[in-house]
Design brief:
This protein is α/β, with parallel strands linked by helices. It contains 9 helices and 7 strands, in the order αααβαβαββαβαααββ. Keywords: Menaquinone biosynthesis, Methyltransferase, S-adenosyl-L-methionine, Transferase.
């Protein structure tokens, strides 16, 4: 059974994830940076650098949220970035951000399902995701659709939480994610379930070599996993 935000509801995971992000969208950026102590910004910058040699011109940002990863990807000097997300609330916050920063001409945020992308085959030079793949209802299906829309030779770069396995980070991270994070999230976002779901979804996610195996299964080659900050997060790379 997949991990869902609202255990008392019978809705599919996809619908619950969209509802959760709609609920927390006004406070999402603040919470994201505070709860990660700002390290998430560094993680995204490192992920973007892994595409530097590829010089992608058309980039798809899956589970774009409010568009933070898309903004970081502008360092690659692309012609266009399209961000898709299932939460209209997150996209609304993102569009306001793009307009304020004068980026709405190059970053286009669209409502879309990562497991059923409305793009033709072999369209994008790169597909990027930050902290979104563990929210897929069907992980394999979502990754397969990312593979489909990539051009041959194109690269996917994925940033996702992982599980620290060494003392003392394993114990410290466990305490933080299971006790501190849900309480802070509840107070700021008014949605207790959202920040209880986060550590549960990280625990359920097949990280490290297990995730690389899924990437390979759907067709990606030259797969790489680069752990970050004592294994709290990882960057995954795959080539079509």
């Amino acid at each position: 059974m997949s991990v869902v935000p609202y255990k008392d509801k019978g809705d599919p995971k996809k619908a619950q994830v969209a509802e959760m992000f709609d609920n927390i969208s006004p406070k999402y950026d603040l919470l994201n940076h505070v709860l990660s102590l700002g390290i998430d910004i560094t993680w995204r910058k490192k992920a973007v650098k892994m595409l530097a040699q590829d010089k992608p011109k058309l980039i798809l940002d899956i589970a774009t949220g409010t568009g933070d990863f898309a903004i970081e990807a502008l360092a690659l000097n692309p012609e266009k970035i399209i961000g898709v997300d299932i939460s209209e609330g997150m996209l609304s916050e993102g569009r306001k951000k793009m307009k304020k920063k004068g980026l709405d001409h190059i970053i286009d945020l669209q409502l879309g399902d990562s497991e059923g992308l409305l793009f033709e085959d072999n369209k994008f030079d790169a597909v990027i995701v930050s902290f979104g793949v563990r929210n897929f209802e069907n992980l394999e299906k979502g990754l397969a659709d990312m593979y489909r829309v990539l051009k041959p030779g194109g690269k996917t770069v994925i940033v996702e939480f992982s599980k620290p396995r060494k003392f003392p980070m394993k114990q410290a991270y466990g305490f933080y994610s299971n006790y501190v994070l849900p309480q802070v999230g509840k107070v700021v976002s008014k949605d207790k379930s959202a920040y209880t779901y986060l550590p549960e979804s990280v625990q359920a996610f097949p990280d490290g070599e297990d995730f690389l195996a899924v990437l390979k299964k759907v067709g990606f080659t030259s797969t790489v996993c680069k752990p970050l900050t004592f294994g709290i997060s990882s960057i995954y790379v795959g080539v079509k």
